[in-house]
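Retro notes, item 3 of 5
We never archived the inputs for the nicotinamide-adenine-dinucleotide complex last cycle. Fixing that now. Sequence and ligand:
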Amino acid sequence: MKRPRNIVILTGAGISAESGIDTFRGGGGLWEQHRVEDVATPEAFARDPDLVLRFYDMRREAIQTKQPNPAHIALARLDREWPKSEGGEVLIVTQNVDDLHERGGALNVLHMHGEHLNAWCTACDMRLRWTDPLIHRPSCPLCGEPALRPDIVWFGEIPYRMDEIHEALSAADLFVSIGTSGAVYPAAGLVRTARDLGMQTLELNLERSQGSAWFHETRLGPASAIVPTWVEELLR
Ligand code: NAD
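Structure as it came back at the time:
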């Protein structure tokens, strides 16, 4: 593989699995206890806001007890050291709504599906840091309305900052996908965009993803082992 300069890394639930955060579709995964259509759509929120708010309150509380694992820490090292050693850019585009990339030390993280630790006021359209429960309908500190919802992109809603993602891809020469099943679009389609743009593509995952055939190279194993090895190779 040619030495890259600008790198776009897409991460999914698999990178946080070894930190104790359930993936969506793995054995014992999130949706086996809660059906996706019961908690992660605007329709579900309209139908049963208490169920949805309780579910996200539980997740928000849980992620604050989890710690970044060696895969998050290795990516953060790459994010910090690559610009200095190679003069290139690294962008971590994550589907994850946890904050483990940031707590691992990464600086350039784009949350395309929102963040557990943010709330979105649907009255004044502001987003703010929020670590407490929402079930009791607290007022928005900015406009006073009790209109806060989780700042999570639900199924049927449009992911955030797609323009920035495409801009970064068009300047990249390596696209890496880590711990994602390739089942949720538009994230799952980014590898095809990367191929159309002519860049190298690498998949790091526990098992082959649905879009595995689009990658030039696939390395299989737990993220906490294969991500640090790949970062070490790149920075060597
Ligand atoms: P997914 O559950 O569909 O797929 C997870 C992938 O990770 C699978 O391919 C699995 O083989 C792989 N995996 C599992 N354990 C791994 C490990 N130890 N090392 C490496 N790979 C491992 O998750 P996805 O593709 O991210 O699905 C997309 C949706 O999941 C997104 O909308 C995202 O917001 C959401 N999600 C996020 C979190 C989180 O924030 N941590 C948790 C669950 C789901």
